């Protein structure tokens, strides 16, 4: 988000060298820190896959759309899981990669969904969530690499408008979307369990009839808070502009 705001300000202040330089530093810092943590997250993902392989194998199988237990299991990128045909349609497969990801060996046997009762499968759309999270993380790393290329290797003082535009338009929203994809994947992927292998969601879900009312009330509260935030920020920004025009 910092990089997106900085990119927007750079597009607005290209003729003001002092302001442009200030926002360029913010952009560069945001991209480098964001890119670094995206890369570290990718490395951590390898360890997470191994933990899933050991403790929640059906979640790993659901994330990769793997139905049959096998060694040399492929890693599926993209596509959509089809439960009827038991395949991922439109995916690009990297041979043997899932086995290596799960156990640091191409011979690692990865359990497929068919080894588990159908009512214990996680929702199969978690494959799409997982891929979305990974793809967005890769794009953010690419943005950071491009910034490093332009600034440190090509020694350019100004970033190209197209790069700033894409950073402003996509960088911040995509980063938030990746976070949401990750949370939904983590929480939905463990279904149907609340406590793995001990307690199912269906056994603890409330039967209260007031859930709908509470949801509406909470939605109203957050709507009011959102509107109030916009009003307050708009007021202060307009006040700042008036003071700037008055006192220079």
From TrEMBL:
Question: Molecular function (GO) terms listed?
Answer: electron transfer activity; heme binding; metal ion binding; oxidoreductase activity, acting on diphenols and related substances as donors, oxygen as acceptor
Which residue spans traverse the membrane?
Answer: 124-150, 162-186, 214-237
Q: Which GO terms describe its biological process?
A: aerobic electron transport chain
Q: Does the keyword Electron transport apply?
A: yes
Entry's localization field: Cell membrane
Q: What does UniProt give as GO cellular component?
A: cytochrome complex; plasma membrane
UniProt keywords (A-Z) are: Cell membrane, Electron transport, Heme, Iron, Membrane, Metal-binding, Transmembrane, Transmembrane helix, Transport
**Source domain of life:** Bacteria
Question: How does the protein associate with the membrane?
Answer: Multi-pass membrane protein
| Family the UniProt entry places it in | Belongs to the cytochrome ubiquinol oxidase subunit 1 family.
Tell me what this protein is called. Cytochrome bd menaquinol oxidase subunit I
């Amino acid at each position: 988000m910092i990089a997106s705001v900085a990119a927007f300000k750079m597009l607005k202040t290209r003729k003001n060298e002092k302001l442009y330089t200030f926002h360029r530093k913010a952009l560069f810092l945001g991209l480098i820190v964001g890119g670094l943590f995206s890369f570290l997250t990718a490395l951590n993902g390898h360890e997470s896959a191994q933990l899933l392989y050991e403790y929640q194998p059906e979640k790993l199988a659901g994330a990769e759309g793997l139905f049959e237990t096998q060694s040399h299991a492929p890693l599926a990128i993209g596509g959509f899981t089809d439960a009827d045909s038991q395949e991922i349609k439109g995916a690009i497969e990297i041979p043997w990669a899932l086995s290596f990801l799960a156990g640091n060996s191409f011979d690692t046997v990865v359990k497929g969904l068919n080894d588990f009762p159908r009512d214990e499968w996680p929702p199969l759309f978690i494959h799409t969530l997982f891929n979305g999270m990974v793809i967005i993380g890769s794009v953010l790393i690419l943005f950071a690499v491009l910034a490093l290329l332009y600034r440190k290797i090509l020694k350019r003082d100004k970033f190209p408008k197209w790069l700033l535009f894409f950073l402003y338009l996509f960088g911040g929203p995509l980063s938030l979307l990746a976070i949401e994809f990750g949370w939904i994947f983590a929480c939905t992927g463990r279904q149907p369990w609340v406590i793995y292998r001990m307690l199912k969601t269906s056994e603890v879900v409330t039967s209260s009839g007031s859930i709908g009312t509470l949801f509406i009330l909470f939605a109203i509260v957050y709507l009011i808070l959102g509107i109030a935030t916009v009003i307050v920020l708009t007021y202060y920004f307009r006040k700042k502009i008036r003071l700037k025009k008055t006192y220079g």
